[in-house]
Design brief:
- With about 200 residues, the protein is α+β, with helices and mostly antiparallel strands.
- It folds into 3 domains: about 1-45; about 50-160, Immunoglobulin-like, CATH 2.60.40; about 170-195.
- The chain contains 4 helices and 7 strands.
- It starts with a helix and ends in a 15-residue tail after the last helix.
- About 15% of the residues are buried.
- Residues about 180-203 have low confidence and may be disordered.
């Protein structure tokens, strides 16, 4: 009976030790989580800087750098697996903001540069053996100094034979307003520009 009692006592002690150790690590993890949450709030959250090929206005293609979150990003740098060259000879990957990096990109901010048209880009990419696209590695920080890294692929060849549709947007609205202004000018000979407010329409 004494041995059994000793075993029970030892078992009870071990249970207490295990519970204590588990509680310690649980509290530690909770404090770390709280600390991370506080740091994220101080930094405004985690930014997400994305580099993509933009096809909003086909057949035109642009290279877009965008921060998709509501958290600012800073000290942004870019690495390219190959040069991004336009049909006109401009090397986009050598532009100052790509070469030296961006010191800051506001929440949901975007920087965009024209690359070329789909028909003009395809032959050059194929000639350079870039069927798998151009990989871009972005590195950046949040306001608290936490570092992040992600990789993106620019590959217009994926849409080489796709029937891309032109989206309706501000350009279409401007063109429509310009057509209306032409009609006004044709009716009474007076000029009216798309930049004028509705209150300035001739009566």
């Amino acid at each position: 009976m004494s041995i059994l009692s000793i075993i029970q006592d030892v078992s009870s002690v071990l249970n207490v030790v295990v519970l204590a150790v588990g509680y310690y690590f649980l509290v530690k993890l909770y404090r770390e989580w709280v600390g991370q949450r506080k740091a994220e709030r101080a930094a405004g959250g985690r930014p997400q800087v994305v580099v993509t090929a933009n096809y909003d206005h086909p057949p035109k293609v642009s290279v877009s750098v965008r921060n998709f979150t509501k958290a600012p990003a800073k000290d942004i740098t870019f690495d390219f697996s190959a040069a991004i060259e336009s049909p006109s000879g401009t090397v986009l990957s050598e532009l100052t903001y790509f070469k030296k990096g961006l010191p800051f990109l506001e929440p949901e901010g975007e920087v965009r540069s024209y690359w070329g048209t789909m028909p003009s880009l395809v032959p050059g990419l194929k000639e350079k053996g870039l069927e798998e696209g151009i990989k871009v590695t972005t590195r950046y920080k949040d306001l608290a100094g936490e570092s992040y890294e992600s990789q993106w692929t620019l590959n217009p060849l994926l849409f080489e034979d796709a029937p891309l549709e032109i989206s309706s947007g501000m350009n279409d609205l401007v063109e429509a307003v310009e057509e209306v202004s032409d009609d006004f000018a044709g009716q009474d000979g007076r000029e009216w520009t798309a930049g004028e407010g509705l209150g300035n329409v001739p009566t």
